[in-house]
Amino acid sequence: MSTTMKAAFYEQFGTPEEKPVRIGELPKPTAGEGEILIRVKAAGVNPVDAYTVRGMLKDAIPCRFPLIPGWDVAGVVEETGHAARRFKKGDEVYAYARRPEIQHGTFAEYISLPEAYVAKRPETLSWEEAGGIPLVALTAWQSLFDAGKLEAGQTVLIIGASGGVGSVAVQLAKNAGAKVIAVASEPNHGFLKELGADSCIDYTIDDVAGAVKDAAAGPLDLIYDCSRGDVLSKTHDLLKEGGHLISITNSKPERRDDVNFQYVFVEPNAPQLDQLAALADAGKLKIHVSKTYPLDQAADALRDIESLHTKGKIVIRI
Ligand SMILES: NC(=O)c1ccc[n+]([C@@H]2O[C@H](COP(=O)([O-])OP(=O)(O)OC[C@H]3O[C@@H](n4cnc5c(N)ncnc54)[C@H](OP(=O)(O)O)[C@@H]3O)[C@@H](O)[C@H]2O)c1
């Protein structure tokens, strides 16, 4: 059996123009203590993967070269390590694979992970759809429910609603019984309505705050900012006193003192992945894969995700 695997990797940080990411052979990992070895079938691409290649996370999380990008995986269990007992060879699984040190990512034929990170994948979805779920769906879940305390009957404003995180957040908020006001460009409004948004607002119009106010017909309980634009600063006065403001893009936004603010940085959580798989298999969580790339074109996928205008997900098929 081969001791190497095909992987996308880089040995120094760089911009897309400097082409740091290349394809080659690296040692195939093995399943260590408490770990499982996964044959990767699909790996979601996220903006953070591109930021990591640029070196933008290096002061926050230790990075080690050669570094394989990618934190999302759906695949098949190939081997179980000593003391790993939750999964067996052949199980179809998915995971959010960020570890305390960044080196072994999912843009490769294999990854080994602590089994505590891993859950059974949704059975009814394609590999591409399953591989696009973990990072964005855990982010949306932890933001809306753990941090944002969203409840049925509340009104939530989701900014950046048609992208990876936002498109899942719209569905989770709607499933939870909330009224959902979604902000994205106009061409994506039909998509957002299909996902369950009650109202859609175009962030390019002159009076975004007025449009949100009319759609909400009352104060907002939660603002969830998944964008890097200026809609939050224009709308945060519409949040009720004691409401929740959650951002995944800015840890220090300008804000009022009378609201509960949290910056969320997504954490691995297998029990939440189990709940997300159940929602997907019940038809209550859909993943729109707008584009797939082969592993050989991982650098192109990373360039593509940096547009910050992805509809749903970009996924690498391996
Ligand atoms: N902290 C964390 O744990 C965490 C986790 C995941 C993601 N993130 C960050 O969150 C952001 C969103 O991630 P993602 O994967 O969902 O990205 P994405 O798939 O690229 O989606 C970006 C979304 O932002 C919208 N958008 C673009 N420009 C906008 C503007 N000026 N005003 C309002 N909305 C705008 C896009 O809508 P249109 O296409 O219609 O323009 C799209 O809906 C990224 O910056 C990412 O790095 C953080």
In short:
GO terms for molecular function: oxidoreductase activity; zinc ion binding. With 318 residues, the chain is an alpha/beta fold. It is built from 9 helices and 15 strands.
Outline the biggest β-sheet.
Answer: 7 strands, mixed
> What is the end-to-end distance?
19 Å
Task: Round the Cα radius of gyration to an integer and report it.
Answer: 20 Å
- Uncertain runs are none
Order of helices and strands: EEEHEEEEHHEHEHEHEHEEHEHE
Strand tally is 15
**What is the overall silhouette?**
globular
CATH-assigned fold name of the largest domain:
Quinone Oxidoreductase, Chain A, domain 1
Quickly name the level 1 CATH class of the largest domain.
Alpha Beta
Percent in helix: 10-25%
Our count of helices gives 9
Name given to the CATH homologous superfamily of the largest domain:
Medium-chain alcohol dehydrogenases, catalytic domain
Percent strand: 25-35%
Which structural class best describes the helix and strand composition? alpha/beta
Q: Which CATH architecture of the largest domain is right?
A: Alpha-Beta Complex
What does this structure look like?
The chain folds into two domains: 4-133 and 288-317, Quinone Oxidoreductase, Chain A, domain 1 (Alpha-Beta Complex), CATH 3.90.180.10; 136-263, Rossmann fold. It is 25% helix and 28% strand. It has helices spanning 47-53, 127-131, 134-147, 164-175, 189-195, 208-216, 231-235, 270-281, 298-305; strands at 4-9, 22-27, 35-45, 72-80, 92-96, 110-114, 118-120, 155-159, 179-183, 199-201, 220-225, 239-247, 260-263, 289-294, 313-317. Strands 3, 4, 5, 6, 7, 14 and 15 form a seven-stranded mixed β-sheet that branches. The protein has a six-stranded parallel β-sheet with strand order 10-9-8-11-12-13, sandwiched between helices. A two-stranded antiparallel sheet has the order 1-2. Strand 8 (155-159), helix 4 and strand 9 form a beta-alpha-beta unit. Helix 3 crosses helix 4. The longest helix has 14 residues, at 134-147. It is globular. It starts with a strand and ends with a strand.
